[in-house]
C-alpha cells in the first residue's frame, strides 16, 4: 500500500526512476544502531550512514532523548531578533573544536545552504572592503558542494552539473586533484602537485577577480571517494593567503571525525577562512548546518548603522533551530566522551577489510582516509580499464549486497564504506564480508558477459 503510493506520487532524488522498475525503493520501517529494517523484517547494515549523515547509529537513545526533551520545550523560534540557550552553546563549541580560533558561526539548514552562505559572505565581504572586482569563484573538477545553483557552480562533478551550466555562475574551471588510478605510474602526491600547479597559474593570473576557493579537504566524496594529498591543502592555504582569496573548507562530509580527526583540515594543519559543516553535526537526525567564520574582520565588515545596508541579509526559516543546536551539542559530547577515542581501532579494522578486498581480481585500487574507505572496480585491474557503463557493475554489487543484508550504495564502480563511527567491530567485519562476497559474485558473472560495442 505504502509502496503503491510511493510509486504513484513520489519522485526520488538522484535516481533514474526507471531503475525502480527493476529495483523498487525499499521501505524501511525501523533503524537501530548500524542497522535498518525493512517492512518484511529484513535487516541491512547501513554501510554509507544513509548518505553520510548518520554518525552515531540510528535511533540513538541519547540523541532521541535530547530531541524529545527539546521538542517538548521549544521546537523552534525565529532566529532573527530571538535566540535560545543552545545556539550560543553550540556556536561556542564549534569555535572551540574547529581549526584556528574562529569567531562567529552562522547557522543554516543543509549543507548546500552552508556553502551558499560562505559564497555570499565572501563576495559581500570583498565588496564592502573595497575590492568589488572579487566576485568570481573557482570550480575544481570532481568537487561537490551541494545542489543549489551557487553550490553547484563551485562544484565540478559533470554528472550533476553540466546540464545546468547555462544557468550557473561564471566560474574559473580548473582541474581538481584527481588521484584516481591511472596507468601513468604517478603517485598521489605527484598528481596533487600537478593539479595544484595548474590552479596556481589560474590564481596568479586572475586573483583580482577571485573571491574564494572551495575545497573538500582530503576526500572528494561525491567524486567516487577521490583522495588526494594534504600537501595540496597546505599549498592552497598559502596561495589563498598570498593573493587575498578566501579558503572555504567544505567539511560537510569529512568533518566530525570521519577522517579520524575532528576536521580533515587538521591533517594538513591548515586554518580555513570559512568552514562549512552539516550532516553528522546532528548525528543525522535532522537537516542542520553551520558556516564557521575564522576572522572577526569578516564579521566587522558587515557591522554598521542600519542605513548603511551592509548586514548579511540571508535567512532560512529554520536557521538556528533549537532541536538542531541541542542535538549538535549532544553529538559533540558523545564523540568527545568515547567515540573519538575508539575510532583508531575501527580505522585499523577497516584497513584490514580493504586489504582483503584488494585480493579480488577486479579491485584495482583500495583507498582509505581515516574511517572512510573505498575500493574501485575495473574490468581489467592491471591497466585500470573501466567496465562499460552498460554493465552497471557498481549497481549490481549494490543489489547483491542488499540481498545479503547491507546497504552499500556505490558511486559508479566504486564501493565505499562510510559507516556510523560507533559501528560495532563485528558488524563492520560482517559488512566487509558482504562486500567481498558481493564483489566476487558480481564480477565473476560479468567476466562471462559479452558487451556489444
Ligand atoms: N558538500 C559536500 C562535501 C557534501 O558531501 C554534500 C552532501 N552530499 C553537500 C555539500 C550538500 O549538503 P546537503 O545535501 O545537505 O545540501
Distance between the termini: 42 Å
CA radius of gyration is: 22 Å
Q: Which strand order spans the largest sheet, edge to edge or round the barrel? A: 4-12-11-10-7-5-6
Q: Output the number of helix runs.
A: 14
Helix and strand run: HEEEHHHEHEHHEHEEEHEHEEHHEEHEEH
Q: Could you estimate the helical fraction of the residues in percent? A: 25-40%
The fourth-level CATH homologous superfamily of the largest domain is Type I PLP-dependent aspartate aminotransferase-like (Major domain)
Looking at the structure, what is the overall shape? globular
How many strands appear in the DSSP assignment? 16
Average of the residue pLDDT scores: 97
Q: Which structural class matches the secondary elements?
A: alpha/beta
Classified by CATH, the class of the largest domain is: Alpha Beta
Just name the CATH architecture of the largest domain.
Answer: 3-Layer(aba) Sandwich
Report the portion of residues in β strands.
15-25%
What molecules are bound to this protein?
4'-deoxy-4'-aminopyridoxal-5'-phosphate
Oligomer: single chain
Features:
single chain, 453 residues, alpha/beta, Aspartate Aminotransferase, domain 1, Aspartate Aminotransferase, domain 2, 2 domains, four-stranded mixed sheet, 14 helices, globular, binds 4'-deoxy-4'-aminopyridoxal-5'-phosphate
Amino acid at each position: 500500500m505504502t509502496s503503491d503510493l510511493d510509486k504513484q506520487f513520489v519522485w526520488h532524488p538522484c535516481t533514474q526512476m526507471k531503475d525502480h522498475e527493476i529495483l523498487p525503493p525499499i521501505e524501511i520501517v525501523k533503524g537501530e544502531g548500524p542497522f535498518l529494517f525493512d517492512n518484511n523484517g529484513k535487516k541491512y547494515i547501513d554501510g554509507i550512514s544513509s548518505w553520510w549523515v548518520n554518525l552515531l547509529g540510528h535511533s540513538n537513545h541519547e540523541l532521541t532523548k535530547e530531541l524529545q526533551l527539546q521538542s517538548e520545550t521549544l521546537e523552534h523560534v525565529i532566529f532573527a531578533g530571538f535566540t535560545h540557550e543552545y545556539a550560543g552553546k553550540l556556536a561556542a563549541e564549534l569555535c572551540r573544536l574547529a581549526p584556528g580560533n574562529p569567531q562567529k558561526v552562522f547557522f543554516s539548514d543543509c549543507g548546500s545552504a552552508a556553502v551558499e552562505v560562505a559564497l555570499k559572505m565572501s563576495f559581500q565581504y570583498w565588496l564592502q572592503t573595497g575590492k568589488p572586482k572579487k566576485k568570481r569563484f573557482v570550480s575544481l573538477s570532481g568537487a561537490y558542494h551541494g545542489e543549489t545553483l551557487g553550490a553547484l557552480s563551485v562544484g565540478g562533478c559533470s554528472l550533476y552539473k553540466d546540464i545546468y551550466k547555462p544557468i550557473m555562475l561564471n566560474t574559473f574551471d580548473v582541474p581538481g586533484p584527481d588521484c584516481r588510478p591511472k596507468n601513468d605510474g604517478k603517485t598521489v602526491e605527484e598528481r596533487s602537485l600537478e593539479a595544484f600547479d595548474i590552479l596556481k597559474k589560474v590564481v596568479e593570473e586572475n586573483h583580482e577577480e577571485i573571491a574564494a576557493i572551495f575545497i573538500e579537504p582530503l576526500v572528494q566524496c561525491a567524486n567516487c571517494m577521490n583522495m588526494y594529498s594534504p600537501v595540496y591543502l597546505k599549498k592552497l592555504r598559502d596561495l589563498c593567503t598570498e593573493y587575498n582569496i578566501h579558503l572555504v573548507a567544505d567539511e560537510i562530509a569529512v568533518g566530525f571525525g570521519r577522517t579520524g580527526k575532528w576536521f580533515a583540515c587538521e591533517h594538513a594543519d591548515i586554518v580555513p577562512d570559512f568552514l562549512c559543516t552539516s550532516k553528522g553535526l546532528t548525528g543525522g537526525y535532522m537537516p542542520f548546518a553551520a558556516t564557521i567564520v575564522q576572522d572577526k574582520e569578516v564579521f566587522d565588515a558587515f557591522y554598521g548603522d542600519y542605513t548603511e545596508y551592509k548586514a548579511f541579509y540571508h535567512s532560512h526559516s529554520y536557521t538556528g533551530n533549537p532541536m538542531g543546536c541541542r542535538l549538535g551539542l549532544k553529538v559533540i559530547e558523545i564523540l568527545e566522551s568515547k567515540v573519538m577515542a575508539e575510532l583508531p581501532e575501527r580505522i585499523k579494522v577497516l584497513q584490514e577489510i580493504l586489504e582483503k578486498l584488494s585480493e579480488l581480481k577486479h579491485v584495482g585500487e583500495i583507498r582509505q582516509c581515516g574511517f572512510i574507505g573505498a575500493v574501485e572496480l575495473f574490468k581489467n585491474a592491471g591497466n585500470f580499464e573501466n567496465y562499460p557503463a552498460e554493465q552497471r557493475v557498481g549497481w549490481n554489487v549494490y543489489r547483491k549486497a542488499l540481498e545479503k543484508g547491507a546497504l552499500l550504495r556505490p558511486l559508479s564502480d566504486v564501493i565505499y564504506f562510510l559507516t556510523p563511527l560507533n559501528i560495532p567491530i563485528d558488524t563492520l567485519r560482517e559488512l566487509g564480508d558482504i562486500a567481498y562476497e558481493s564483489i566476487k559474485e558480481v564480477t565473476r558473472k560479468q567476466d562471462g558477459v559479452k558487451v556489444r560495442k
